[in-house]
Amino acid sequence: MNPKKALRLEADALARKCADLQWLGTCAVCGRTGTEVHHLISRATMATRYEPENLMLLCAGCHQHSSELSAHRTPARFREWLMLKHCDTLVWVDEHKHDTVTATIPWYQEQIKRLKATLARLERT
Fold first, then answer.
1. For the segment 7-38, what is each residue's pLDDT rounded down to a tens digit?
2. Phi-psi category of 25—alpha, beta or left, where left has phi over 0 and alpha has psi -120 to 50?
3. Element spanning 117, H or E
4. Residue 33 bridge partners (DSSP)
5. Between vectors from CA 112 to CA 107 and to CA 115, what angle results, nearest 5°?
6. CA separation (Å) from 8 to 44, 90, 95, 103, 112?
7. Which of 26, 42, 49, 53 is the most buried (most CB within 10 A)?
């Protein structure tokens, strides 16, 4: 495996752990067990991929399957819900949705360091 991919996978795993702790293992929408991490700004946007504000823990239904409220199936409704329940997060999303960065090996290393610090902080609370 190439070094950059290995770092990306490590950062992804740490971000997953951070989201799980941040949302106390529960779906942010319905309160069931959260099983999937939703990136409010697409995870293809590397500048925000690992930002805690960009990560939301959801159950599979609220992430992809529900026709009533799903981050992927009903994005306009999900945005309305976000505005009502997590307005500060939506403001952050709108401020950062056009951020860009080149994902280099040193950048991944910095993200991993930052994620580990965030994880340690979340584990203490």
1. 999 999 999 999 999 999 999 999 999 999 99
2. left
3. helix 105-124
4. 26
5. 125
6. 12, 26, 24, 9, 9
7. 49
